[in-house]
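User: Last request for today: this protein with S-adenosyl-L-homocysteine, please.
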Amino acid sequence: MRRPFLLLPLAAFSFPAGAAVQEPDRAEERERLVRQVTNLVATSGARRGTQLRSAVIEALRRVPRHLFVPEAVRADAYRDRPLPIGHDATISAPTIVALMTELLDVAPEHRVLEVGTGSGYQAAILSGLGREIFSIELVEPLARSAAATLAGLGYSNVRVKAGDGYAGWPEHAPFDRVIVTAAAPHVPQPLIDQLRPGGRMVIPVGEADGDHQLMLIVKDMRGRITRQTILPVRFVPLQRG
Ligand code: SAH
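Assistant: Here's the final one, the structure of the complex with S-adenosyl-L-homocysteine:
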């Protein structure tokens, strides 16, 4: 029997009247990606056995990754791969975002510093997990566009500033959590200083043209630092402003 011609997914094409930007939500693609990412994190790589906690999965489900990337690469937004966002910056593959977010272990009362706002996607993920997110981006047009995207989508607990994240954001320190999404040859001392005792930092470390190691840095209640190497990664370099 032939299917009736009108059985089209009309709902996918209906938008709230008067919406400024008429973009499909793509929730089904996102759901498929989240399942794939959850399985990948659990079954492969150096952190095999890592179970994403439900709050992280929920954040990945909610944030519309396609609205954080340029139109030219939007079709690929729900594949597990990094995407170029202009100005030599890259939004990390969802598996890396998921793993870094999991390692960061953000609680609802936390104030979080992100260095390398890029598209604002990672900040949006953190927005649903912590209390206040402070994000610094060196490239001013990226900072401006990420701030606009975040505000437009209602992530009102995220503050973005253009500047050199190497120095941290002393006015808002100390932070419970610090995440750096560009690779530095050494962990910037100001970021360690601005981490609260009991805090943790996730950061890729390595030379600009070499391999990077994702590191988890923990500051105990007495201020002592321990470092743990998690897995090899590739990030854009942390530039000095
Ligand atoms: N977290 C981003 C991805 C960032 S890519 C996202 O979710 O989309 C790394 C970003 O770090 C780039 O945008 C780059 O411009 C920025 N960056 C490089 N050096 C920096 C510095 N010293 N301070 C702040 N941002 C920096």
